[in-house]
Amino acid sequence: MKTLDVLQLNTGRVFFDLVFADVDRIPGPGEEFYYEKFAVGPGGSFNTAAGLARLGKNVALVEDLGNDPISDFILRRIKQEGIATDLIRMHEQEIFAVTVSVADHKDRRFFSHMTKHDRPVPSPDILDRYRIKHLHLPGIRLDRAVIEFAREARARGITVSLESQYAAAKPDNPDLTLLLRSVDLFLCNRDEALALTGKKDPDSALAALRSLCPLCVVKLGSEGAVALADGDPVRSPALDVEVVDPTGAGDAFAAGFVAGYMESRPLDQCLRMGNICGGLCTTAPGAVTALPTREKLEQMLGRG
Fold this sequence. Notes:
The chain is an alpha/beta fold. It has one domain: 3-Layer(aba) Sandwich (UDP-N-acetylmuramoyl-L-alanine:D-glutamate ligase). The protein is 31% helix and 24% strand. It has helices spanning 46-54, 69-80, 144-155, 174-180, 190-197, 202-210, 249-262, 267-281, 294-302, and strands at residues 2-8, 14-20, 38-44, 59-61, 63-65, 88-90, 97-103, 108-114, 130-137, 159-163, 185-189, 215-219, 225-228, 234-236. The strands form 3 sheets. The chain has an 8-stranded mixed beta sheet with strand order 4-1-9-10-11-12-13-14, sandwiched between helices. The chain has a 4-stranded mixed beta sheet with strand order 3-2-7-8. It has a two-stranded parallel ribbon with strand order 5-6.
């Protein structure tokens, strides 16, 4: 039986990213600007998987790809990151998602397209084929099959984490409640926390989320991040870096935090690991260009 540190389910999409960074002005009608800071590569749910792989975790990805050049490129990059492809389903048709990200130093705008294709969640029977330590859900997908998979994983002693990824779920959605009650760790950003709970401030939103999930984390951008498990919230400042492109910073944070969580590190250190990974990610164009290795992360941790 094959051992996996992390199985990442297809609750998000792997995108083909075209990233323009350090953009100081958006072209007007009929204008064309050229920018030097540019990156192309996989993005979306690929980012967290790649971040975990670079931190030494043995990761397998559930995904659907097609017979198009974009899928070929994505599959090649998945392999280059050392992510297992056993559970990638290849189809005889075009299946891809594309995003153009235009970023300044503070935030980014996305122009996206996805081909339409059924992306069924695997049966929990897949858990019989692997010895899995952790299950990661890279986006909120309000599908009872996802909830069933997460519950079965936890019943087998597998820890489960969930990233929000700009979900449009409403606070009173019963499936959202069921999903949050089916995971051990939930990560979201400030805007997502407010939208998912209907609260007016991050601390109130964090408390509301914690009532549904044992450990919740809210990413606060330049203010760092805050987590709540038992007792009082734990806060950690952001890494002090010169931001080039914030694309993928939240996914990088998730990779660092989940890695620390899997290693049973103290909560403040998990936050620090997340902030280091998220901060370093912003120092180069593209979501994975500057993702740290385990050696780099431990070096940064040692500096306090």
